[in-house]
Amino acid sequence: MRRGRGSPKTLNGVSRGLARALVAAASRRQDQQKRLGGLIYNLQRTDLDAGCTVDQDVEWLLGIGVFLIWNHEKLDFLEFLQYLQFKTLDVHIFKICIFDLRRGQHEGQELDKILFFFPMEAPFSAQLSVIGLCEGIITFTRIFSPEAACEVIEAERHSYVFYEAEPDIWMVMVMEKSKDNESFWRCDALRRILKEVHYLFMMFHGSLRSLLEKQPGGELARNRLYPFVLDYLTDFYVGKKLQMPSFRDSLRERGTVQTLTVSREVAIEVQSLITMLGYSCIGNTTCKSVILFHDLLVSTTLSPEDTTNIYTYAVLRLTPQALSSSTNSWSYLLKGTSATTVAVGFTAATGPVSDGSQQLSRDASSAGQGQGNNVPRPLQREKWFKGKDGFLTTDIWGAEVGSLVPVLPTVWLRETEENMCLCIYQHKNLTVVILIPACSLINEQGLSLAKQQLVENAYPKILNVEEKLSRGWGGENSYHVSGYRYLVIDGDRHISRASPPGKVTTLAKDSLLTLNKLREEVDLEKLRAQRTNPEHENDFEVCIRAKNNAWVIAKVTRGKELHMVLEKANETLLYATEAVEKFSNRYCEGAFSSD
Amino acid sequence: MASDPTSLPSPSDLSIPNPSPTEEERLATLNLEEPTGNHAPIPRPLSNGSSLSADFDTGNEIEVAEEELLGDSTDLAEGSSSHGGGGWREISEQDGEVASCSPSSSGYAGERGSSGASSGIEEVDDGVALQDDWVPGKRHLDEDDASVSWRKRKKHFFILSHSGKPIYSRYGDEHKLAGFSATLQAIISFVENGGDRVKFVRAGKHQVVFLVKGPIYLVCISCTEEPYEALKGQLELIYGQMLLILTKSVNRCFEKNPKFDMSPLLGGTDVVFSSLIRAFSWNPATFLHAYTCLPLAYSTRQAAGAILQDVADSGVLFAILMCKHKVVSLVGAQKASLHPDDMLLLANFILSSESFRTSESFSPICLPKYNPMAFLYAYVHYLDEDTHLTLLTTSSDAFYHLKECRLRIEAVLVKSNVLAEVQRSMLDGGLHVEDLPVDSSRRSRSISPQMTQENNISGSRPPHMALGGPAGLWHFIYRSIYLDQYVSSEFSSPINNSAQQKRLYRAYQKLFASMHDQGTGPHKTQYRRDRDYVLLCWITQDFELYAAFDPLADKVSAIKTCNRVCQWVRDLENEIFLLGASPFSW
């Protein structure tokens, strides 16, 4: 790794105290410059050494100063500059901020509100400006709508999507609209990203409020949030660019699970496996399990919400596709086009970096090393390995004191409000996630015993199920229905099924845009129905014959949704109706059929 | 207008004369309380010698549909008896009846003294405003942004200046809302400072829509769940209405003094804005951007058109004969074209200002789509209670000429029996879905005058018994793209009270926005079914059809019925449309 000469050393020596002082000075520009005199000089030197073009604005320097707080001198400064140079590519396209309105109430303490801000190098003035606007609008809308919080600010060049993750803790995603005519998206799809990352965070770290209560200074929460969200974002990189879902993803639904349909015979086998996993692992403790085949859910004994979380995590990091991260999963959760090159770890990179996700991951690692002890990064890439015994292991959670045995990861279940240890067994494309109550596992011996028992008891069944599933497996296009491009959502059970992404890409842009718009309307309609009479079933149906002659259809009935595009279809409405009817009868057990 | 000819857009090759008062002078005179003379080009319709702000009374004014009056939960007793009559206009008419039942003595609600916050809330929540003696123009003057009742109003409209000075607020006293207005300004300029422009904010069912027009900011805060496009269109119309009164040259005042206080210039025009805002919940013209005609026999309309044309040839820019909001005939000077939005705003201005009714008036107005910078001069005269003639000219001293023109027109109209026909048509109403011909053999009927009898028959059937047209057809709107005109059927059961009419209106509005999506529209067909309706929309190069059916209507027969409606309208187009005078295709 390259090392800067002289000045970087000086910079790396900037103490936390100094950085704090820099921040405190942010409101008084003249003062700033005096205090910053030396630092500025050094930075300029470094800048020249590194051959980077860096904004000389004082506020930018303040940003660096604070960045150093989180990095505790562990970051190589040159590397940081490279990162900045790289980051300028997408710095303005996308922002995420998380802030707590209960903090920083007094003037001069506004920075205290900020729990997370991406991009990290955004000057504090810019961060405060975004948060100031959001807070202002939240307060303003409460005048008229005290019961329903602000959802979105739509401006000519940006969309601000709001999600109140916990009372007074807000997550806001700011999307910049580009001029390439691709900037159409559904607010709800973006809000689901915020929701997903928050749910995953809660699963591993507990609520933000509890972290803030544990450590009122906020460092604990920030130290966990930064690496977590940055690691999460690595999955949205396509080459150098962060790519958030757009209208092209209208036939997917984040926050839902995609299931595998199995024959009755296989279902019985699976059921018997689940029963065995539930009772026979450790003495008389009841374990829970989630079983996946490829990226599809086979079975679960968790609540829909917890299932969604575990499933999402498994698809992101645990399935065979996720483990061999050179080829990304084809799952709906990920961009089909996203190709992440093999990671080179935090220290291995030399010269300019080519992949954004690596870089983010590197930020995350540097951000994660606060407080002297390592913060676990459950979403860090390439940290799960399949052992010879078929179990997946990771050192994300560190190792037991005095041994090399990794600590078992634990997750927090929303439904039962208990901590569970994650034990993952993988056989070919079958991934079995077993959740063992954390209190029942006293030590490492208990775990290996459990593993041993599992292999002894369940192995034949696992083999059997895997074989049968493989035999019936139709490949990633198995849920393609010729002539249809569709998405079916069962909102109550958090389940969806959709045309394979590869097939969706054959749709014309206009069809997708119309679909995106229609879905947005359906989102609003659903919210309206929830508000006006939550008990009533809200059934409605829209069929649009678009300018390009495609039929774009949405049907909501008894909590289920069907979205569909028929491109090569007859022009009559009756034809479209019939097509929906056929589809519903054949693939949805008549859920959307009219009678 | 002449003070700055270079800034005139040139939608026409019309040369605008150079009347004496310059733009600045005109603006300066706008806030004069005293008229400058009976027939001089005075800022408002002041022919009776008093200004608008002083002399409203509830008298015969009938445009009193109100947000709360039409609240969904209210079942107007009077509503069920409404049939026949003037289509969409009925909403306000019947509310007018409701309102006029209760005595009201003064022009402003504020003068009623205490309409306390608590009663206000009730009004908002359950539409109990029926007993409220309600008057045109501004109401709830005692409210401000601290009042709970004010916050619960379903739909606010604000106009403010870029420095944050309030210019107009639908509810509450502008002066008391200065702080709130400053907040709105702060939001807009905060986003603007970031190199962006805020379009809307959504929170639950509330939507805040922003529109920036140079130094004028317009904001709507609504929980009516209308689409953004619809609310934005409404703000555009409000801005247009403001221009109609002041012209765009008001911007110059802000160039000279950014803190310029504009509200006095609009003094007394509250009634114009509140009437326009009410139109946003009953008048399809506000989102269709088309106008509608009073059904008349072809020859009758021809006769009216001929005399108007005669006048237009003598130096009148536009001659418009209307009955309430419906056009009887319309003629423009060669190559001059009148935008449907301008017609809407002009008609609203005339119909909402009581003083036009009392005697002939000559008033400067601006047609924002025609030329936002210049004033035209409108000679307005009511030929009978509902029928009014408007003659527009560029010349500020044409009053006597226009008066002569009017006398000529009036004489011809009376002589050729046009006015009587107009009155009869008003009574008969327009198309009734119950009369939709079952097969093509009945196609050739006309609705007037032969249809009068049939209409009487349909009108005489008990309204509660009527179950709409064939296949569960409840209502339709047909818009001719080529003509810039639309026709909508009369309401029939079960759309028989104002709350239901307004709900249907909003459903159409949503359908329209969905069909005309900016990025991908217009779509060709749309079928939409929810708990309230089955809606069908069909757009071709020539027309747009919006039809509402019973929510249980059968798809196949609904489609057939739509085809029949289109055929029916085409068969009747000589009578329901103004042909050969398409104002936009001269």
TrEMBL record, chain A:
Coiled-coil intervals, chain numbering: none
Superkingdom field: Eukaryota
Gene Ontology biological-process entries: vesicle-mediated transport
Region annotation (Disordered) ranges: 352-379
GO terms for cellular component: Mon1-Ccz1 complex
Residues of the CCZ1/INTU/HSP4 first Longin domain: 96-206
Biased composition (Polar residues): 355-374
InterPro entries: Ccz1, CCZ1/INTU/HSP4_longin_1
Family as reported in the entry's similarity comment: Belongs to the CCZ1 family.
UniProt name for this protein: CCZ1/INTU/HSP4 first Longin domain-containing protein
Organism of origin: Dioscorea zingiberensis
Automatic annotation (TrEMBL), chain B:
Domain of life of the source: Eukaryota
Low complexity bias spans: 1-17, 104-120
Domain FUZ/MON1/HPS1 second Longin: from-to ranges: 315-408
Annotated Pfam families: Fuz_longin_1 (PF19036), Fuz_longin_2 (PF19037), Fuz_longin_3 (PF19038)
Bias (Polar residues) ranges: 446-459
Region (Disordered) residue spans: 1-121, 442-462
InterPro entries for the chain: FUZ/MON1/HPS1_longin_1, FUZ/MON1/HPS1_longin_2, FUZ/MON1/HPS1_longin_3, Mon1
Chain segments annotated as coiled-coil in the UniProt record: none
Gene Ontology BP annotations: protein targeting to vacuole; vesicle-mediated transport
Domain FUZ/MON1/HPS1 first Longin: 155-276
Compositionally biased residues, Acidic residues: 58-70
Domain FUZ/MON1/HPS1 third Longin, chain residue ranges per copy: 472-571
Family membership noted in the UniProt record: Belongs to the MON1/SAND family.
UniProt cross-references to PANTHER family, sorted A to Z: SAND PROTEIN-RELATED, VACUOLAR FUSION PROTEIN MON1 HOMOLOG
Protein function: Plays an important role in membrane trafficking through the secretory apparatus.
Protein's name according to its UniProt entry: Vacuolar fusion protein MON1 homolog
Source lineage: Eukaryota, Viridiplantae, Streptophyta, Embryophyta, Tracheophyta
